[in-house]
Amino acid sequence: MKLKREWIGLGLTAPAYAWLCVTVILPLAMMLYFSFLSKMPMGNAEPAFSLRQYMAFFQKDFYRFLAWRSLMLGFHVTLFCVLIGYPAAFVLARLVKGRWREAILLLVVLPFWSNALIRIFAWTMVLRTDGIVDQMLHFILPGAPSIGILYSYPAIVIGLVHSFLPYMILTCYISLQAIDDTLVEAGQALGASNLTVFRRIILPLSLPGLFVGVVLIFVPVVGAFMEPRILGGRQSIMLGTVIEDQFTEVFNWPLGAALSFTLLAIVSLIFLAAYPLLKNRLKVS
Amino acid sequence: MSKVDIRNVSKRYGDVIALNDVSLSFGEREFFGLLGPSGSGKTTLLRSIAGFVEPTSGEILIEGGDISRIPTYKRDIGMVFQNYALFPHMTIFENVAFPLSVRGVKDAEIRSRVANILELVQLGAYGSRRPRELSGGQQQRIALARALVSRPRVLLLDEPLGALDKNLRQQMQIELRQIQREVGITTILVTHDQEEALTLSDRIAIFRKGEVVQTGRPDEIYERPQNAFAAEFFGATNFLEGHSAGNNGGLGSVRLDDGTLVLTSDVVPANGERVVTTVRPEKFRISAAKAALPEDGQPVNVLSGTVVRPVYIGASVTYHVTTGTSELTVFQQNREARLFETGDRVVLNWLPQHAVVLAG
Fold it and tell me: What DSSP line would sit under B252-269, residue for residue?
């Protein structure tokens, strides 16, 4: 009987595993294979297995510098998403009531519905010198200097924060609205001010949502290439753009794959290091 | 001296009146039950005392001081919620220590006070557990310990036993009462369970549509309801309607519509006025029509009727008896030689003090 149940379980989950296998594991395995090749297997080239591509990361300061830049970009974008997204989710989940809440939530998700590339190009119109922001400033203060910040690091951060903010708002919103109101009332009745209730009850209980948001944002931003390329100008070079170059321009897939997996390893190590700190905080009923 | 005073408190939500000019006083160390159906305003009053609801008008005083403008966290109250509201991310110790740590009590003192209060609720060994690892009854006791640990001025209980099953509830009622006496704290209980209110309370206020219908000791409330709502709220009751036949020798008499004269120890209004009396089902003595009455010279009411339907419950039997003009419910302890059956002629007797005259 028990055996039969196991078979049923296996049968029911098999399509999902097959799907994962085809869409995730196979392509990744292909890339992993590429990353250990000495060169691109094209034409007469006879690639051998080697660690050369991985060595490049450690031998050239250039790549480490880029990895640092990408991590910093991930850090800054995630930080701004937390600073803007958490309070927005808090207001939405705990203070706004009724139909307004759904309407605002819809507005939050709306950017998701437009094409990412169009979103980014829209930002170039806003941020460039003599762009919309600049014109508005000069309308109010005719003598003010130009503040076009297109093609700069802040422009990249602005574009990425705009793209990824909905993730943070949604994950935080979900964990914040799940907090029982009577816990807040209990806190107040037992002598805690609003600030203390937030610090000791609401914040710890919403940490899982915050953490999921951080992971969902930090990981893709570290590998981002589109926003840096279009909004960054001379600042555009990141590990993500270099990896993209290996695939589209330089045609050195092995190096691109190796750099990708190195980045994946670094990000994994960061979360692994943070895990002991978070473990107790995330343990909620 | 009263501990908490409610003075002319009203609360309106738009056109809806949740509380209408309620005034009550809760005494020092008193266990006070607020009883009523849902939507009667009892919870609104409790939440007003806690500060979660701001009354539209009126004053709430604790130890003589108006607390209307003081935020909840400075009111120095303890509160137990129906779902206990234990903090899921904290251990039992941290939960109980919460009211002390937010008040800046020193660690050593927190440890000893939490240990003491956990002993009081007999859960001393559970400090390191999480709330979800405890049973409903245990969670309830932790919620009580957490509400008491800071030695608040008032303890507010919002349907604290509502989520427990019947046996556990009865056991917790006894424990709750015992702990409340031991600590000696003024306690205000909101409940819709009549039995719970009777068992626990020193005094009870019955709520209906935002107003207090009657206030008194449990026995006063049960034995001498002042109106039909208060009478009916404690389960089955019987109404006998008629006209006043005047007061004579300490007893009032009422002429029922079928001509029978009923005596009551209450004072009846002037001659000829419409009067409604009520008799609790267990106050009747039911006997066979032919049986002689064991008279001891005391005046007793007599009414004859026919058993319409006997309902056998085990420890007791409920008879529905028709007198021709009205149908009465009668409880009888199951200790008679024989039970009555449908169609049996019976005589009902009850004492004048068990016939209660209701206010218009």
Answer: EEEEETTS-EEEESSPP-
Whether B88 and A285 lie within 8 Å, measured CB to CB? yes
Contact A229, A25 (CB under 8 A): no
Read off the amino acid at residue A210: L
Judged by CB atoms closer than 8 Å, whether chains meet at A189 and B72 is answered as: yes
The half-sphere exposure of A23 on its side-chain side, counting CA atoms within 13 A, is: 6
Q: For residue range A14-47, what is the model confidence (pLDDT) as tens digits?
A: 999 999 999 999 999 999 998 998 888 777 777 8
Contact A90, A171 (CB under 8 A): no
Percent of chain A with pLDDT over 70: 97
Interface predicted TM-score of the whole assembly (ipTM), two decimals: 0.84
Q: Do B85 and A285 touch (CB under 8 A)?
A: no
B interface with A, Cβ–Cβ below 8 Å: 50-52, 71-74, 76-79, 81, 83, 85, 87-89, 98-99, 102-103, 130-132, 146-147, 150, 156
B186-191/B31-35 β-pairing:
parallel
Amino acid (one-letter) located at A192: A
Residue with tokens 């008629």: B242
User: Is residue A285 very low, low, confident or very high in pLDDT (cuts 50, 70, 90)?
Assistant: very low
Half-sphere exposure of B168 (CA within 13 A, CB side): 13
Which residues lie closer than 8 Å to A244 by C-beta, 6 or more apart? A225, A229, A256
Q: Which residues of B touch A193 (CB under 8 A)?
A: 71, 73, 102
Amino acid identity at B217: R
Q: Which helix (H) or strand (E) covers residue A3, if one does?
A: helix A2-20
pTM: 0.83
